[in-house]
Write a structure and sequence with these properties.
CATH topology of the largest domain: FAD/NAD(P)-binding domain
Strand content: 15-25%
Shape: globular
Oligomer: single chain
Distance between the termini: 17 Å
Helix content: 25-40%
Bound molecules: flavin-adenine dinucleotide
Number of strands: 20
């Protein structure tokens, strides 16, 4: 096993998505500062790096394969951006994107963001609004069995809210099913709000009070008011920049098949007709791929992480002339509850969020289809997929013409579903890390599905390998 005080360590990173690239980058960056720069080699199955964090710019449209941005409330991501020299390329979401819509009873309605306006709006029936207002009186549940997001929402805010609002909101983030997503795994802050303050409203009021005392802002349940950011040329800027800094040590088209241990505690990494060794190995491929890679190391852990289901998610980008839109589409986008019978989770209005992502007088709609409730989406061919998005655009967003630009990005295993039992599955991977020092599991499959989650974990692992900083 690698001794950070000894010779230059050799670290093998498997997977060149944001998780693998960020871990490699932090490791090299911190290592240089500590005077023990590790030798980092990245092995990526695909012919190009970036994983789902990539951008396509064509005909004036900036289309994201996966993430369209990251919130600026994760210091590790901001540090990564700074260290990569990209701070000056950051672009903040336009103020207009504060407007959010939901398609409800056949109509697109603006969602009020402040609680009093929300209670006055007609999105929910009176009984449901009263039930929400009673949330502070609901007794706090501080222990007991693991709870689903839906059960928590129903218990604290009522079933109408859970079905009509929470379900589409969670679909919009995780493409998931609230009935089997684990609250603790996907919204740990909500668990803490109930545990520490007795409820959501109580926690928000207490936090606002604390923030006022400190002269800061408290924000909502997701923490301080966070703003979505991208880069001038889209999110791919981050992965492209990190990848190009590893020229010569980033090996494309190298699918890793197995990791084994050597008698001296180092690791043997094998592909088809090639192999290499490392003092440490970062498993940064999605868990379904890592399950195969570690099959001979530990079948139980392989089985556990192999059970982390990744829901299929398809991204359809359609560009329209402004005159073909019957609605100004002046906001972040629209969420579409399942109950409305439209085959799409929602649509993001890319150029309203980040002006410049569509040509002049044109608009870019980025519609997300599939997810846990509609795994059958993968069976559609690309023509059917575009037609399905067209139908959603016409019906929900009053789009009247044909798109002049079409592009689709298909992710058969797109977003990790942190279902009930997720924490136990992750704990099993952590116990293997304890057993085999130098082995690390990271990426969106485990401790955070977002780019921020990946960056935070990347920093933790780099610090742990080098035995520096908070992770010691
Ligand atoms: C449609 C969509 C929208 C999203 N929107 C957002 C958003 O707005 N904001 C946000 O923060 N997050 C968003 N996410 C989540 C975000 O994309 C992920 O957090 C992030 O991209 C995951 O990065 P990763 O490196 O863990 O995995 P990936 O990006 O999947 O990278 C894993 C890499 O491992 C490689 N690999 C696989 N198997 C092997 C093997 N055997 N050997 C070698 N290499 C291998 C793959 O080719 C891939 O390059 C979105 C995701 C999707 C799908």
């Amino acid at each position: 096993m690698y001794d950070p005080t000894g010779d230059r360590p050799r670290v093998i990173v498997i997977g060149g998505g944001i998780a693998g690239l960020a871990t490699a980058f932090f490791l090299r960056s911190y290592g240089r500062e500590a005077g023990v720069e590790p030798e980092v080699e990245i092995y990526e199955a695909d012919e190009s790096a970036g994983g789902t964090t990539r951008t396509s710019i064509e005909e004036g449209y900036t289309c994201e394969w996966g993430p369209n941005g990251f919130l600026d409330n994760e210091p590790a991501t901001l540090e990564l951006v700074e260290r990569a020299g990209l701070t000056s390329e950051l672009v903040r979401a336009d103020e207009a994107s504060a407007n959010r819509y939901i398609y409800h009873s056949g109509q697109m309605r603006q969602v009020p963001t402040k609680p009093p306006a929300f209670l006055k709006s007609n999105i929910l029936p009176l009984g449901a609004k009263l039930r929400i207002a009673l949330e502070p009186l609901v007794p706090a549940k501080r222990n007991g069995p693991e709870e689903s997001v839906h059960s928590f929402g129903t218990r604290r805010l009522g079933s109408t809210f859970a079905n009509l609002m929470l379900d589409p909101m969670v679909s919009g983030i995780f493409a998931g099913n609230t009935h089997n997503l684990s609250l603790e795994a996907v919204f740990p802050k909500m668990v803490a709000m109930e545990r520490d303050y007795g409820g959501l409203f109580r926690a928000m009021i207490a936090k606002q009070r604390e923030a006022r005392k400190k002269g800061t802002t408290a924000g909502g349940p997701s923490g301080p008011n966070a703003v979505l950011h991208t880069f001038l040329n889209g999110m791919g800027t981050l992965t492209d920049t990190l990848a190009s800094s590893f020229e010569g040590s980033l090996h494309m088209g190298r699918l890793v098949q197995r990791v084994e241990t050597n008698p001296d505690g180092s690791f043997l990494v094998r592909g088809d007709g090639w192999q290499t060794t490392g003092d440490a190995v970062i498993l940064a491929a999605p868990s379904w791929a890592t399950a195969e890679i570690i099959f001979d190391l530990d079948r139980e852990v392989s089985g556990a992480i192999g059970d982390i289901w990744h829901a299929p998610v398809d991204v359809v980008c359609h560009g329209y002339h402004q005159r073909d839109l019957g609605h100004p589409l002046n906001g972040f986008g629209v969420l579409i509850p399942r109950s409305e019978g439209v085959r799409a989770l929602g649509s993001l209005w890319s150029d309203a969020i980040f002006p410049g992502q569509a040509p002049e007088n044109h608009r870019l709609l980025r519609t997300i289809l599939g997810g846990a409730h509609d795994a059958g989406i993968s069976e559609l061919d690309e023509k059917q997929l575009h037609a399905t998005a067209d139908e959603a655009h016409r019906r929900v967003m009053d789009v009247r013409g044909e798109p002049s630009y079409r592009k689709a990005f298909r992710h058969a295993r797109g977003i990790a579903q942190y279902t009930l039992g997720h924490q136990e599955r992750v704990a099993k991977s952590e116990s293997l890390e304890q057993e085999l020092p130098g082995l690390y599991f990271t990426g969106a499959s485990y401790r955070g599905v977002s780019v921020n989650g990946c960056a935070k974990d990347a920093k933790r692992i780099a610090q742990s390998i080098l035995k520096i900083g908070e992770a010691v």
